[in-house]
């Protein structure tokens, strides 16, 4: 068993071997990635890829607690981080503390992740100074789609300084790492050079200090849409449907169950 990274060890990986991060929402997938990933993120993307919600805004604390606890049971070595869901932290640092403490207590997570830069600076400082390690998330922040107006690339042109300021704000507030989502490659590189904490890219740059993907995207299980950055390493959705179609046909033509799947009256004596 390899030792689980701590948030300060993650921070110390700045500029080193890239951090390998994937999302997980259930025990079996967590088991699959445990030996290969530095960090497993219980993302609020669970709302879209597992619960069929149109966006991440409907995700609740209860959902994050249940999925987080399930993922934790599948991990022996990877560090686990849990997303704070929309509405559980924006109101005040105190509200954020209560929610983060509950997430950590009920899931065993080592840290929480929340979306926002400058606007969350005070909250991140409040949490980190009270023993809650925070992974930040800037650039495209999906919980803000209604104010951002969609899932467009963030930080192009005039908007570049805003995303840079967000990254510097979370570093200054004490975040141990920061996810950069859907920003121009050159901006991701500039931020990675400018901040002392690891940047974890998704739709960002190969020069980031780590990469993260949504597991259902990379396995080809989530097919409602495919973001440009979501490289498919497998086609489990297509493969799974083929398997189900075969099962349906075998049930209908009575070739399943076969003799090896059924039980005799007596156990055969050897
Ligand atoms: O919810 C999620 O899956 C995430 C990652 C894409 C970073 O926040
Ligand atoms: Na998320």
UniProtKB/TrEMBL annotation:
- Which amino acids does the record list as binding Mg(2+)? 44, 83, 115
In terms of CDD domains, this protein maps to:
KPHMT-like
Residue numbers annotated as active site: 181 (proton acceptor)
Q: Which GO terms describe its molecular function?
A: 3-methyl-2-oxobutanoate hydroxymethyltransferase activity; magnesium ion binding; methyltransferase activity
What does the record say about how the cofactor binds? Answer: Binds 1 Mg(2+) ion per subunit.
Task: Supply the EC number(s).
Answer: 2.1.2.11
Q: Quick one: which residues bind 3-methyl-2-oxobutanoate?
A: 44-45, 83, 113
Its recorded reaction(s) are: (6R)-5,10-methylene-5,6,7,8-tetrahydrofolate + 3-methyl-2-oxobutanoate + H2O = 2-dehydropantoate + (6S)-5,6,7,8-tetrahydrofolate
GO terms for cellular component: cytoplasm
Pathway assignment: Cofactor biosynthesis; (R)-pantothenate biosynthesis; (R)-pantoate from 3-methyl-2-oxobutanoate: step 1/2
Which of UniProt's keywords are assigned here? Cytoplasm, Magnesium, Metal-binding, Methyltransferase, Pantothenate biosynthesis, Transferase
Query: What Gene3D superfamilies does the database record attribute to this sequence?
Result: Phosphoenolpyruvate-binding domains
Is Protein biosynthesis there in the keyword field?
no
Cofactors: Mg(2+)
What is a single Pfam family found in this protein's UniProt entry?
Answer: Pantoate_transf
HAMAP family this protein is in?
Answer: PanB
Oligomer status and interactors: Homodecamer; pentamer of dimers.
Q: What NCBIfam families does the record tag this protein with?
A: panB, PRK00311.1
What is this protein's name? 3-methyl-2-oxobutanoate hydroxymethyltransferase
Q: Which organism is it from?
A: Aliiroseovarius pelagivivens
